[in-house]
Amino acid sequence: MCRALARDDQGHTVDLATSHASISRTLPPILAKEVDGSLDRDALSWLLICPRAAAPEKLRLTSFRPSGAPLDKVDVLLSTVKCPREAGDGAECRDSGPVRAVADLVDRSHPAAVGHSVLAEIGGRIGVADRYRELTSIRVGGPRDTALGPIGRYRAKLHFHVVRASPSGQAPVGGDDAGARAVARAEARTASMLWGQCGIHFGDEAQIPIDIVDPPPRFLLAIGCKMGLPASGGEVSVLSNGRAVRVVTRAGDPPVVVAHAFARAVEAAGFRAVVSPNTRISPGAFRTADVLVRERDGTPVELSPLPGHPTSTDRTLDACIGEVNLADGLMHFDDLDAVAGTLEERTLIKAYQDDDPSSIDVFIVPSFSRTGRIGESFIDTDGSGIQNVVVIDRTGVRAGSRSYALPHELGHVLLDMPGHPDDFGVDRPWMLMDADATDGSVFGPRHLSVEDCERALRQSGPDSASPLLTPWPLD
Fold first, then answer.
1. Do the beta carbons of residue 261 and residue 237 sit within 8 Å?
2. Model-level pTM?
3. Does domain 3-141 have CATH number 1.10.357?
4. CATH topology of domain 151-211+346-475
């Protein structure tokens, strides 16, 4: 009976009990050599030590999902090699050459990689068989060689909110509610496959919470609106489910102070109020603050101006009622208000984001209001009312492997990185975090570097200020 040994790119034997296979993070070697000279440190070669005349001509590698369900398989032709000394007399040896575990079908099927690549998922395993039986298997984890040591597997949590364009309307993806949930699960699975390059998985997609929701009512009052100017004296007033709520502003008070005063007036009127401050935008004077108004049972109320009265009579301090109208798309942030988000974004997100600081809320909307935007993210900014949130639209979902919009936007959150490596550096469109790559070929955005993996663990790992990743030991 043959024995199978796994060997890394240096020819060292990989211990199948204590180590693992890792997903390749480069272009196929022949392409990587021409494009950027990077080396695939993750591929494994399989050495077969067999009794003389018993060695097979090929190996079958079968990958399995964490659940044990088959994922992929490949037959790899073997070449005859000299046996190591420990093989003893009477043995013959065959070698597979480097075989890559890869994250997506485009990479697996490229002519430069086909026959030596197999799809693999973090937490699963790869079985190695001859023509008769499985000889051995190896678990699949994160990179084996990083500045932080070997990376096994980490779990991150997602919470999807699929937003209809209008109340009780059709979901923006999938055709109906069941189809929308299926699309969201497929997006989560794709994210797990790609972020598996860093040993990061988002859990069983069947267990991920997915809510199908309507646009919220006008339940949010933004004090200071966008620029956050201080008060000069006046009154802020609205109707809350038809009941008048008023507060007098005092000269010099910043928006957050006025917001708390308004929240007390809301509570006195019999409602619940939560003050949610926003990060000060670069041209703003002070931080703005949103007041979220709900019934005692948590149901959002409907805010409206008092008939014949502006929401604010203060000459400098504005007050704006947030409204979500997706008929013309979601108004997205620009460079000036990215840290806070637009009023429409804040109204949507603050209506539905959960209270779990260890999860990432993902919103799927019909569209953004201006062309060219298919996804955006809100990272863990100090003092912000929106953190660890991703928004993608229907176009971002449909773009699929051309853009990998959701995995890319999740990268901003996990890496705690608002920009892109190529904003002021070398353009590498095959990297997942490239700023503007749209390419369905193997040169499209799908790869993560070891440095990306290290940064994700430093910024979002168990020892970070806001942990999003928890250890998930390989079975």
1. no
2. 0.94
3. no
4. Collagenase (Catalytic Domain) (3.40.390)
